[in-house]
Structure formats: structure tokens, C-alpha cells
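Aim 2, interim progress: modelling of the iron/sulfur cluster-bound target.
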Amino acid sequence: MRKLGIYVQVPFCQTKCTYCNFHTGVVASSRFAPYVEAVCREIREHRELLRAAGVGSEIDGKAHSQNWLCHEAVVDTCYIGGGTPSLLDRSHLQNILDAVRSTFVAQLAEVTLEADPETVEAEKAAAWVAAGINRVSFGLQSFVDQELIAAGRMHRRADIYRAVPILRAAGIRNISFDLIAGLPHQTKESWRQSLDELAGLAPEHVSVYLLEIDEGSRLGKELLQGGGKYSAGAVPSEDVMAEFYEMAQEGLGAAGYHHYEISNWAKRGFESKHNLKYWRREPYLGFGAGAHSFSGTERWANAHDAAAYVTALQGGRLPVEQHETLTAESALEEELFLGLRQLDGIDVGRIEREYGVTLAGKFDPLALAGLVKRDGSMVRLAPERLSVSNEVFVELIR
Ligand code: SF4
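Predicted structure of the complex, ligand included:
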């Protein structure tokens, strides 16, 4: 049976980070229960809702022998992300996972909850484990209070040191930390401090993201229009961010982490099973406002607005906003762009056979420039040039 991933989007936060303009809202907690009910309904009735929305419309056609909708798939990973899903009541999370288990054939090997450190309490953590959550992805971003304050985060360094032992005591054996390189006020010394403190807490998995500032965010507007409220003047340059990335490569490698994707490191065996599905183009179903899905042949996404999503589900309708049946050309682009994010690289021979194309012309100049490495039919990004990997992706779409 084919494996299927489930993603559940919880678009609520306690506060808005200065750099973020995601479709997440700071709302009254009374909005959580109707949202969770809508998500559970979407999970339980997904086949009927998707058919009515015109998604998976080729389900009865022969063309869909590859489509997961034709088969019973086994759900082996579930990822509850956001937003800040750890804000939800423990019963909400239990209800979501119960809906997954009662709707799908579920053999859940990895169930991840995104959490912010200040939301972790012993009773909640015990309930998460009882509900089946076995992995927590922590949005730490930094161990330096000045950086956390400037970014508008709710937690402080002390919250991280309070939360991690609570999770360990509750039985969570798989913890991932997110760090952001390029926060306002970050220096080489403070970045080194964050990397060192992270290594001291020994999470099983680490994600390092370069700061992306949405133009519509408060920090983005200040960068464009000037001002001093959100520390736009203290955002490190792109060159410094690239140095931070290289420091992370070196420091995390020395601390025993295996670099397996551009932004992700793990102790062996703790690579994110769920996120690997995205880069390997394996099927996943997304539930909730703004959630994206991929069937193998089609991609679609739900409407972003959480209130509109709840109203639609209460009326028995799925508000699908984007729906695309992939052409061979776009599927090939995905193979290259998503596949190359993994440091093991891509099997160009397989891709050439599957898509009837020749890719040597694209990769030869990149190999000559030292940006990619070839090993038989495998091509991978050069590990020492990862901080400029964008150059590879730009060349590939020329
Ligand atoms: S917690 Fe995440 S989603 Fe929420 S405002 Fe901050 S960056 Fe955006």
C-alpha cells in the first residue's frame, strides 16, 4: 500500500512576529473549537468534499492508476503545523488525531507538533504524548533575548531551558529546533552562541532558515520605508547571513548532525519522515485553512481565510482556492528543484528516462563551475557552495 502524509494547518498565533506576513491570525481562543470541528469534518469527509470541489476528478479514469485516491493508502506521518498549534487545547489535538485514525488506515510512525517554548506545560506535554504525538518541532529561532524581543517572539531564552526538560520528561524522544539566521541584531558572536547552546541541548533534528522578510510584514515595511521601531537597520547583510549559514554547516557537522537537506540537519535516523515526502514528491493531504495537498498528479490548496474556511465547512463545502493538474514540464521542474534540495541529490538517469529528456546540457556547466557534483548518474549540490545554491536553481530555469 502507498504511504500518505497528512498535514494539518493551525493558523493561530499568540502575537505576530515582525518579519512574518503568513496567513496566521491572533484571535480569541473561542475561535479554536469551531476551527478544529471544521478540520475534523474535512478529514472525515475528504473524499466527498474533494469530489464536489472537482479535485481528483480523474479518479474514475484509467489515467489515475497512479493516484493515491484509487487505492487505500497507509498514513504513516502526520504534521500539525502553523501558526502555533501548541496553543490549542489538548482535546483539540486529540480530536484531530482521532479523526485521522478513524478515517484512514493509519500506522503513524511520526506525528509532529509545532510548538513555541512558552506554550509548553507538563500536563499539556503528557496529553500530547497520550494523543500519539512523538515529535515536537520547536520554533526557538535564537537563544539571545535581544534578538527574540526585536523579532516580536513571545518566548525568551529561559523558556527554552524550561520547556525542553518538560518534553523529555513527558517522553518525547524526537525534538527539532528551528533557528533563524539573519535576525535583527544578530552578530557572528551571538549566532555562535545560539549554535553552541543548541548543541548543548542535543535535539535530534535542527532546521536553519535564512531570515525571509515579507514585504507586507512590519519589518518589511520598515526596510522599504525607513523607521526604527522594528530594528530594520540592524538586519545583517546577505553576505553575513551566508557566513552564518556556513557557520551552521560547520558547527552542526562537528556536533554530529548529518546535513540532509539545504535547511535541515539530523542525528542519523531522525531525518523528518514527513518533510522528506515534500522533497521526494510523495503524496500528502493537507487539512485546514491554507493547507496544500499533492496527489502525485494534482496540487491544490484550501482558502487561506480561517473564518471563510470554517463557514464553508459548516455548509458542507470545501473552499479550494488553487487547483492544478501538473504538466510533464512542471513535474520535471519539481523533480529538479525539490530533489536537489536533498544533499544526496537526484538520479538524473532516472529522471531522463522517466521524462524523455536530456539534462547533461544543464548540469555540465554547473559541474564545471563547481556548483554541483556528479557521481555516476547522481547529481548533488556541492556541499561547500550551498550558501549560493540559488545560483544553481536560477541556471536550471534558464
Ligand atoms: S509564530 Fe510563525 S506563523 Fe506565527 S507570527 Fe511568528 S513566524 Fe508567523
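Confidence is low (pLDDT under 50) at residues 58-66. The pocket of iron/sulfur cluster is lined by residues 13, 16-17, 20, 22, 24, 82-84, 139 (CB under 6 Å).
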